[in-house]
């Protein structure tokens, strides 16, 4: 009686490969200055520019208006790329982009008049 080693070898390979058969990887890139909802709730009408900058960090842009008032803008972007696979059967790639903009308006004296999100 002769035993074929091919099925035995194939079975051993299958037992050793599960870690290579399925997988996923993810990569996240962020840019700008993200302002969370929790942080934004701390901004109050009547605060001064310096208090806002201490709380939120430097804005992406400061927009000067003709009446002497100013609007500050914080822009942020987060891109997540994800790849999932099952060896020789399935592969899925996806990209998720989250963008946000926060605005705060100041009167000519540098006092907060309003804040909002886009």
Name the features:
single chain; 118 residues; alpha+beta; Beta-lactamase Inhibitory Protein, Chain:B, domain 1; 5-stranded antiparallel beta sheet; 24% helix; 47% strand
Write structural notes for this entry.
The protein is rod-shaped. It has 118 residues and is of the alpha+beta class. It is built from 4 helices and 5 strands; from the N terminus they run H-H-E-H-H-E-E-E-E.
Number of domains: 1
The beta-strand count equals 5
Question: How far apart, in Å, are the first and last alpha carbons?
Answer: 77 Å
The best one-word shape is rod-shaped
Care to give the gist of this entry?
With 118 residues, the chain is an alpha+beta fold. Helices cover 24% and strands 47% of the residues. The protein has one domain (23-117): Beta-lactamase Inhibitory Protein, Chain:B, domain 1 (2-Layer Sandwich), CATH 3.30.1450.10.
Write the layout of secondary structure elements.
Layout: H1 5-16, H2 18-21, E1 22-32, H3 37-40, H4 49-56, E2 61-64, E3 70-86, E4 90-106, E5 112-117
Antiparallel strand pairs: 1-3, 2-3, 3-4, 4-5
